Amino acid sequence: MSGIKRKWHLKVLMILLPIIVGVIALCIGRYIVAPKEVISVLGNKLLGNSDAIEDVNLSVVWNIRLPRIILGMLVGMGLSVSGTAFQGLFSNPLATPDTLGVAAGSAFGAALGMLVTTNMFLVQIIALIFGIIAVGITYMISKLKGKSTILMIVLAGMVTSSFFQALISLIKYVADPETKLPAITYWLMGSMASVSFESLLAGAPFILLGVIILYSLRWRLNVLSLSEDEAKTMGINVLYLRWLVIIASTLVTAAAVSMCGQVGWVGLLIPHISRMIVGSNHQKVIPLSISLGAIYMILIDTLARSMTAAEIPLSILTALIGAPFFAYLLRKTGGVWS
To answer: Which residues pair with 147 in a beta bridge?
Structure first.
């Protein structure tokens, strides 16, 4: 009985911790808001009593910081669970959410959108579409005699990613250096500065849908580490499961990139930390990755908007923090994740 209680305590903790960190992050920034004021803003706003809130606190807490923190949670948990799923699917500890080229495709779509329009909602839609197109191209390249093997899918993803990276460079080359180029370059480095509740509506449903699918498949991901024949004897349709994981991860990654640009290291680092804590069982790794990923991205975005007067791009911070920490993990484990 104590073991069951302990499991429930851990589950509640994994749910509550990102929320607690998010509330603390609402207080932090170049304009400090007291925790009491933050709770007052959230309570009055949810009760429809906006008149009781100071205009400055309402603007900072509700209109600026809250959408960013929600997006940070979504992107963090989405990229983390996608990285976990891909590492299990491809039996490769270095697999990331961009293994199939979806992030590069979405980034190209966003760069193209910013070149032709100033409507950021439209830019998000174009980025999402091109992310899905990128995976479609990967699938077509990977087909060999009517079938796609894991090796061919990974190699095709590398080709697709390189192709779209070249197209991004072409967009930068032709973009107006005074107006378009700085905006495209900054966006590609990752930022949540322009997020609003309206823009969240465009991408959040895709991230949530993908995360829910991957969470529901968490025990089946353990089967993918077995040979195809062994998986079939357990009644698992390997091909169907493989593509369901790929589609769910594609939705998550394309939506995340479409809303805040390319954010590296999250989908690589967080799954490894989770495995160090709970082992290789995806039934435990997936939920922990969701929780830790949400916390990690909230912290990264809070640092990005608070450390200096000018906001630091997310990809710089994730690399500066993620690369040394990953090197530490390699030294500690010898590259063996059990």
So the answer is: 144
C-alpha to C-alpha distance for 311 and 302, rounded to whole angstroms: 10
What angle do helix axes 197-216 and 282-306 make, rounded to 10 degrees?
160
Yes or no: say if 315 and 98 are a contact pair by the CB < 8 Å rule: no
At 122 the three-state DSSP class reads helix
Helix axes 2-27, 66-89, angle to 10 degrees: 130
- 92-146 confidence digits (pLDDT tens): 888 888 889 999 999 999 999 999 988 888 888 999 999 999 999 998 998 876 6
Closest CA to 116 of 175, 190, 168, 166: 175
pLDDT band at 198 (very low <50, low <70, confident <90, very high): confident
Q: Which of 27, 22, 70, 62 is nearest to 42 (CA)?
A: 62
N- to C-terminal Cα distance for the chain?
28
**Which residue bears the tokens 């948990």?**
77
Per-residue CA distances from 329 to 269, 282, 324 (Å): 9, 20, 9
Asked if 296 contacts 317 with a C-beta cutoff of 8 angstroms, the reply is: no
Q: Using CA of residue 216, residue 213, residue 322, residue 303, what is the dihedral sign?
A: negative
Give the tokens for residue 86: 């891909």
Record the pTM. 0.89
What does the CA dihedral 273, 149, 217, 134 come to, rounded to 10 degrees? 80
Smallest Cα–Cα separation from 189: which of 313, 301, 94, 333? Answer: 313
Helix (H) or strand (E) holding 147: strand 147-148
Residue with tokens 């080709």, as numbered in its chain: 159
Q: What is the pLDDT of residue 227?
A: 64
DSSP state of 148: E
